[in-house]
Hints:
The structure holds two protein chains of two kinds. Chain A is mainly α. Helices cover 66% and strands 6% of the residues of chain A. Chain A has a two-stranded antiparallel ribbon. In chain A, a hairpin with a 2-residue loop joins strand 2 (140-143) and strand 3 (146-149). The longest helix of chain A has 26 residues, at 65-90. Chain B contains seven helices and three strands. In chain B, a hairpin with a 2-residue loop joins strand 2 (128-131) and strand 3. Chains A and B meet through helix 1, helix 3, helix 4, strand 1 and helix 5 of A and helix 1, helix 3, helix 4, strand 1 and helix 5 of B.
Amino acid sequence: MIPKIIVFAILAGFSTLIFRMILSHRPFRLAGGWAQIIVSSLSGIALWIVLVLLSHSTTPISGAEKWDMLSGVLIHLCAFWCNYWISNLAGGFRVLMAINLADQTRPITLEEWMAAFGGLGMDVFLRDRMKSILIPWKIVSVHDNKMILLPGWGMFFGRLMAILEIMLYSMRSL
Amino acid sequence: MAVLSYLIGALGFVVYALLFMFLLRLRLRLGWFLLELVLGVLVHALTSALGLFWITGFSYWYNLSLYAFLWFCFFFVSSIYSVSVTLGIIRYLYDKPNHSASLEEIYEYCIEAPFKERAEFLVNTGQAQKMDRCYVSTIAGKQTVQRMRRINKMLGMEISGFYTPLKGDLED
Lengths: 174, 172
């Protein structure tokens, strides 16, 4: 038999996807995918806590049930990942490439495909990565048309990639 | 017994991670996504069966919740490592002697090359067709796009591939 606290965690965890759908449409629409994921996850946790409190209105949570609570928290963290992955699956680089190609009325060359990427092209894509992540996060600096990896965060991520390469080397070819 | 149940979940994950890294080196025909999924389920089934058999009072749910959480974390790190263009730029710079490269070089090796690689992937998986030097979306490709658009609509997502919401800033 599944402990009640865990059943509530599974139900509330799955409900985060419904919360996400509500938060992504009017009149409750929240701007930004991350805000939607975080608020829907927090709503799921709040629902879970309410359900647990209602089921324990007369009896306190026992020592053994504290382990169920820990399991519930882990289930909510899994629900958060699921929410994140659904967004990522439908909005990734490869999906966008497929969408851009499907939108074309005639066969296109690789150069035209790259120019069509996201409606702005791959040149702008590189600048977007520089302006949105690499430069503001102080990972790289750009001088005289040269990109330089900065000490601190730049070298940290560089070393992290080197470690991951040892662990997962064949997963990435480029 | 609760601690032991969680411990089995953690141990199961360690076994999974080590097996995954080993199997990657064998370069199986199975894609890494399927490998993570199949291996994840198999190792979990095996460790859970062992737990249920050997430990009295073993809680499957404690074991599952910790294992699933660790699996998701591992999946996040490995997939980001495998597909992120931004991390690709960092890796490329890290491998360079002075940790620097010209923007043209970065574009060629970290933007153009991964784009070509993904284009080939779409061709190999039947979502795109290459005719001479041109590419065209196949029926399967269009169906996938329709499915993705449906998910995006359901989640109210507008995908652009760009982080900066003010695209105009980037066009300058």
